[in-house]
Design goal:
Order of helices and strands: EHEHEHEHEHHEHHEHEHEH
Shape: globular
CATH topology of the largest domain: Rossmann fold
Largest sheet: 5 strands, parallel
Radius of gyration: 18 Å
Strand content: 15-25%
Low-confidence stretches: none
Strand order of the largest sheet: 4-3-1-2-9
CATH architecture of the largest domain: 3-Layer(aba) Sandwich
Length: 259
């Protein structure tokens, strides 16, 4: 391994939701060093304009690269849709891996099923989602479910509180007992999978893009000769634009909580 393998992988999201992706990255690539940045001061991205998300994402990526990042993971469906293509064009020599709603594996598992896609309003509005739905919807009934406010509420923690259960009931309660699968199209949502399942009923399959993103990162690092040495003990660090001890403690708690 040469010097190119020695940098870190920068991972970012609008807040703490991307920690669900970070967990999959660490599981897939335990020898890598990861630096996670949550832009919690500007969360949620799903309720901003596309131009705002692009500018925020560009600033984060530029800081990562200035600090020596060898690769970038956009651990946010909204930022991937709004910014990934532009960022890749600006940095053609840097692996930049994004995430997208896991509709493809859901449609393969339930080729004639009814599939809910829970996501932010921006993710569901942009062309990337519509292209995905056309490519993989097939004979499925794909039902987009915008979830305004849900990512912002998850940012506050206290996931067992009654108000969060009531919010989820209001978003998807009308589909109880009537769906085969749910695509968690925002990286915050895996943290409330159990609450969603309680509303929709047992037997619903859940899909998110974390594992696929981790496999894609491994493939890109391998292709570019950037994998860390097997003997290297990987490390994970956290930073946030909402730079308080309480916020960073919340990040660490989400990193270790059962899913």
């Amino acid at each position: 391994m040469g010097e190119r393998s020695e940098g870190f992988v920068g991972v970012f999201d609008s807040g703490l939701g991307g920690i669900s992706v970070l967990r999959a990255l660490v599981a897939e690539l335990p020898h890598e060093d990861f630096r996670y940045f949550g832009d919690s001061a500007h969360a949620p991205y799903g309720e901003k304009t596309e131009a705002q998300v692009l500018e925020l994402s560009r600033d984060i990526v530029e800081r990562f690269l200035a600090d020596g990042a060898k690769a970038i993971v956009i651990a946010c469906n909204t930022a991937t849709s709004a910014a990934a293509a532009t960022l890749r064009a600006a940095h053609p020599n840097v692996p930049i891996v994004g995430i997208e709603p896991a509709l493809k594996p859901a449609a393969r598992a339930f080729p004639r099923g009814r599939i809910l896609v829970m996501a932010t309003e921006m993710t569901l509005h942009l062309d990337k989602y519509h292209d995905l739905a056309r490519a993989w919807g097939g004979e499925c009934e794909v039902v987009p479910v915008p979830c305004p406010g849900l990512a912002a509420r998850i940012e506050h923690g206290n996931l067992g509180a009654p108000d969060l259960a009531e919010m989820i009931e209001g978003l998807v309660g009308s589909y109880s007992g009537e769906v085969d699968a749910v695509v968690l199209g925002c990286t915050h949502y895996p943290f409330v999978r159990a609450q969603i399942e309680r509303v929709l009923g047992p037997g619903v399959a859940f899909f998110d893009g974390g594992a696929g993103t981790a496999r894609q990162l491994r493939a890109r690092l391998t292709d570019e000769g950037l994998l860390a040495a097997d003997g290297h003990l990987g490390a994970v660090s956290f930073a946030s634009s909402l730079d308080t001890p309480d916020e960073l403690a919340l990040y660490r708690r989400f990193f270790s909580m059962p899913l």
